[in-house]
Amino acid sequence: MGLIVTENIAIEDLTEDMARDELTRLADLLNMANKAYHSDDDPMMTDAEFDALKKRNNDIELKFPEHKKPDSPTEKVGALPSETFSKIKHSKRMFSLANAFEDNDLYDFDEQVRRFLNFGELDPLEYTVEPKIDGLSLSLRYENGKLAFAATRGDGTTGENVTENAKQISDIPQNLPTKIEVIEVRGEVYMEHKDFEILNKNYDSLGKKIFANPRNAAAGSLRQLDATITAERPLKFLAYAWGELTEPLDISQFGAIKKLKNLGFKTNSHTKLCKTIDEALAHYEELSKIRSDLGYDIDGIVYKVDSLNLQDRLGYRSTTPRWAIAHKFPAEYSWTQLEAIDIQVGRTGALSPVARLQPVTVGGVVVSNATLHNQDYIEGRDSSGKEIRSGKDIRINDWVEVYRAGDVIPKISDVDLTRRHVDSLPYTFPSNCPECGSKAIRDEGDAVIRCTGGIDCPAQAIEKLKHFVSRKAFDIEGLGGKQIELFFADEVLPVKEPADIFTLKLRDQNNLTKLKDRHGFGQKSAKNLFEAIENKKTIEFSRFLFSLGIRHVGENVAKILARHFLSWSKFVESIAISQNKESQEYLDLVAIDGIGTTVVSSLLSAFESGSEKNIINRLANHLNILDEIPPDGENSFISGKTLVFTGTLEKMSRSEAKSLAENFGAKVSGSVSAKTDLVIAGPGAGSKIKKAEELGLKVLDETEWLSLIGK
Asked: Among the listed ranges 74-78, 486-490, 526-530, 557-561, which one has the minimum average pLDDT value?
């Protein structure tokens, strides 16, 4: 897979457009990796590489929340179940875990939990700490003490029915000494090192393909169509969680694990209850030292808030609980030689340097490229001018230390000056775009040097079109990046802007040289492409808005705007009125939670009279843009209403209050206007209360607010 520009830029150097592009690239790659890992049992990358990819995606979303995609990889768990087994829908979703890679990430996690709960630094907060088994997640449902079925994680919502296979694992009891009506026990199926070695030796002697690692062996064994094969495999199961329960196991995580053990499940003996985050980190260090002696694979440690009541209050993000985090083990460092520095040009014109390296293995992955971020990074400075790498610059033919800890993109941590050639020269960053020759400039306050060629730069124009047809945008089957490059350069059927895609069939009919006879297309593939394009003429409002590639308008922002306006026509009308920044429409637009002046400025610029607006209008004329479906929660009193929180909330944090409101289908705004339905005010509320009174709006205190939503 070739590198594209955004994957070689540090997160701190990403622009809004770059972040949007990178999130699209990461989504595609992570989805493929998820399918290979969870559905096909044939990983396309190591766990460390996958974790690094996911962390980069998460970090970008944290820095650019407005670009978070509604179907972001952080919104997904696992992959869609394969077609081999029947499907089972989990009664309670199986969530994944957020990842930490450094000790500071754990302190940040502890701080976030306390802030959400309105806890002070001295308030007691205990954690259950346990090894993270590298195996296959499994959910076991017991009804009146009898095993009813077993299901894999799948995509977190629906898994595969592997009941008969699970019954072959001796660690899984088929009957429980309990009268609990329903209890779903969740844990990990894995294989110990000694059993894995024996299995592979047997397979090798029989001329069969051996397994790459114990995790693959466990997954492949559990997902056999013939349960007798599963019975022959030495699989183990450790319980550590639960799903649906008709009565609680305990009041704490640690106590519930003990209850699972009493019910006959094997649990991890290295699980420990820690009274502070420092104590939890000490247990991490202890387990990391004995990791190789455990006899099975672990790839980190999991920390969970021990109190189940607090877990309930903290709740969940889209795919991860707020009350738990996985602390992954660090990656490795390696030395190699830098052979060349290439410059790549992205959709926004950013010139990004990439180090071409002598291939070297870093943490189990062969690395041949590393990001060099920007001109400052090469020269040994950060964006504020401070020294990095003790001020050592990076030059061609240097020996460099490469690492991958905490990030998907390999980086350079050091330069060995003792091995630098005596005639070595500092690298000179280009002052012109290598693609179109236009002048490359660096705006004040920007860490990136950009090509000024705009749509005249082929690299930028092609990348904009690639974004339009990307999976999270129009996702036209048969029209990917390679096809866009072909059509962009085509003299018979050129595609220079999105609307050109929807005139392809008509133009092809009017040409003597048909598409079916060119570009590797046959009659069937050309017909399929035209049908795929036709099928995409109807599209959701939010997806269409995202596809336009407006700067700062990522998937999350597009979704927010679509949910606010509900229809494309209302949105366009509002933007037109908002061109007057003195209008109430403009003020309301800026006040939408998650939008702000930067996004609005980009929207106004895109829809001003000019080439970009004309491109959008020409495209919209070919399409049926569907109205947005309002969020769930129509039975809630506050569903669809706009709420404003002001002042200091005393019984919960602002984050918890906002989360509750959105769970009930409400919209949260940052300012009071005539469109506001409710204002929830705590002590210290100021000008917003005054404005609410002037407008005659209903104002609730925190107690009334909690009573309203039944809390």
From this structure: 74-78
Q: How far is CA 390 from the centre of its chain?
A: 33
Nearest to 471 by CA among 462, 461, 463, 481: 481
3-state secondary structure of 211: coil
Confidence of residue 3 (pLDDT cuts 50, 70, 90): very low
- How many CB atoms are located within 10 Å of the residue 223 CB? 20
Question: Domain boundaries in the chain?
Answer: 5-76+331-419, 87-328, 540-626, 642-708
The stretch 576-583 carries a mean pLDDT of 92
Q: Report residue 692 CA to chain centroid gap.
A: 38
pTM confidence score: 0.51
Residues in the chain: 711
Q: What pLDDT digit, counting tens, does each position of 421-474 carry? A: 999 999 999 999 998 999 999 987 778 898 887 767 888 888 889 989 987 889
Alpha carbon distance, N-terminus to C-terminus of the chain: 51
| Whether pLDDT at 1 is above 50 | no
* Cα–Cα distance measured from residue 644 to residue 677, given in angstroms and rounded to the nearest whole number: 8
Which residues, other chains included, contact 70 with Cβ-Cβ below 8 Å and sequence gap of 6+?
A: 542, 555, 556, 559
Catalytic residue of the set 132, 328, 466, 688: 132
Domain range 642-708, its CATH number among 1.10.10.10, 3.40.50.10190, 3.30.70.920, 3.40.190.10: 3.40.50.10190
For the domain with range 540-626, which CATH number is right: 3.40.640.10, 1.10.287.470, 1.10.150.20, 3.90.1640.30? 1.10.150.20
Element containing residue 239 per DSSP (H, E):
strand 236-245
Percent of the chain topping pLDDT 90:
39
What is the C-alpha to C-alpha distance for residues 711 and 708, in angstroms, rounded to an integer? 8
pLDDT in tens, 178-210: 888 999 999 999 999 899 889 888 888 888 778
Q: Is 496 considered catalytic here?
A: no
Q: Taking CA 103 as the corner, what is the angle to CA 97 and CA 108, rounded to the nearest 5 degrees?
A: 65
Specify the CATH class of 5-76+331-419 in words: mainly beta
Cα distance between residue 512 and residue 518, in whole Å: 12
Q: Do residues 59 and 53 make contact, with C-beta atoms less than 8 angstroms apart?
A: no
Average pLDDT over residues 127-140: 94
Burial letters 403-414, b for 16+ CB under 10 A, else e: bbbbbbbbbbee
Q: Where are the beta strands (DSSP E) in 306-452?
A: 324-328, 333-345, 351-362, 365-371, 399-403, 411-415, 440-441, 450-451
Q: Please report which helix (H) or strand (E) contains residue 242, including its range.
A: strand 236-245
What the block records as the tokens of 168 is 């072959």
The residues with which 362 forms a beta bridge, in sequence order, are 365
Q: Helix, strand or coil for residue 63?
A: helix
